[in-house]
UniProtKB/TrEMBL annotation:
PANTHER family recorded: PROTEIN YEEZ, PUTATIVE-RELATED
Pfam families named among the record's database cross-references: Epimerase
Chain segments carrying region Disordered: 113-133, 261-293
Start and end residues of each NAD-dependent epimerase/dehydratase domain: 3-216
SUPFAM superfamilies in the cross-refs: NAD(P)-binding Rossmann-fold domains
Protein name from the UniProt record: Nucleoside-diphosphate-sugar epimerase
Record's compositionally biased regions (Polar residues): 263-276
Length: 293
């Protein structure tokens, strides 16, 4: 099938584009810049220029395609206002894509984070949070899944806190970035809180499987590591960068601070069994060994 994809040059998106092309699909990718356009064309995708704010471009891309994978997000976590603006932009974009697919039975695959549940790993059956820093994104994803009742084969792939490749990406990547800037490999609280993780190449396989096979209105977990202690993540980062490892204030992480401090392990048992998904790339702690000083 021809797949329209947003966010096709990001850490996850670039892996998804290659996975689709390697498995017989064609890709029409949204490209915000000349450099993104060149990168996408180099691997064999066709492109259309625009951003999530270009709603007519989104409608045209969806109309021309047999399915849609939405991955683009502003990724500006500098302030609550910036995060809210990114969530609002994505919500309108998803609504636009969904409206174009109504009544077609074509797939629309979107992305969210795994939820957190006190005292146990979250599962695919647990609801997303609808309040707090990322509550708006949860509401947008739920609205997308509800399009199942309007003839859209909508599905959500819930991503863990860290999606990584060659030691970079996700919340662990933010820890690394802050460590380089501050000279301390930090973690909030006592560091025993756990974050789930997955390698980007394994996540890409799941996106393809969901696109091809997932029933309408379903959610899936792209989780390999159920939960790595944040202190263990910071310890590897500190050792690789030659920096001290210390607890730091939650405020160090801005609007993400409360999320960084929360214990949030997650399971993918249902996803693995139902979609026959078998991640096999390096774990997060193994992959962090690729960090260069």
């Amino acid at each position: 099938m021809q797949v329209f994809i947003t966010g096709g040059t990001g850490l996850i998106g670039s892996a998804v584009v290659r996975e689709l092309l390697d498995n017989g699909h064609s890709v029409l990718a949204l490209a915000r810049s000349e450099s993104s356009e060149a990168a996408l064309r180099e691997v064999g995708a066709t492109t259309v220029r625009g951003s999530l704010a270009d709603l007519d471009v989104l409608r045209t891309g969806a109309a021309k395609s047999d399915g849609v994978i939405h991955l683009a997000f502003s990724n500006d976590f500098s302030s609550p206002e910036a995060l809210a603006a990114g969530v609002a932009e994505e919500s309108v974009a998803l609504l636009t894509l969904g409206d174009e697919l109504v009544g077609s039975d074509r797939p629309l695959v979107t992305v969210s984070g795994t939820p957190w549940v006190p005292g146990r790993p979250s599962t695919e059956a647990d609801p997303l949070p609808l309040d707090g820093p990322v509550g708006g994104r949860g509401r947008s994803v739920m609205a997308t899944l509800e399009l199942a009742s309007r003839g859209v084969r909508s599905a959500a792939v819930r991503m863990p806190r860290t999606v990584h490749n060659q030691g970079d990406g996700g919340f662990a990547g933010l820890l690394t970035q802050i460590a380089r800037q501050s000279g301390v490999s930090g973690y909030p609280g006592d560091g025993t809180q756990r974050w789930p993780a997955v390698h980007a190449l394994d996540a890409a396989v799941l996106f393809r499987l969901v696109l091809e096979n997932a029933p309408a209105g379903t959610a899936w977990h792209a989780v390999d590591d159920e939960g790595d202690a944040v202190r263990d993540i910071a310890t590897v980062i500190g050792r690789r960068l030659g920096l001290p490892v210390e607890s730091v204030p939650e405020a160090t992480y801005g609007p993400l601070g409360p999320i960084f401090a929360t214990d949030q392990p997650s399971s993918s048992a249902h996803t693995r069994q139902t979609l026959n998904w078998h991640p096999h790339h390096p774990s997060l702690l193994e992959d962090l060994e690729n960090l260069q000083p």
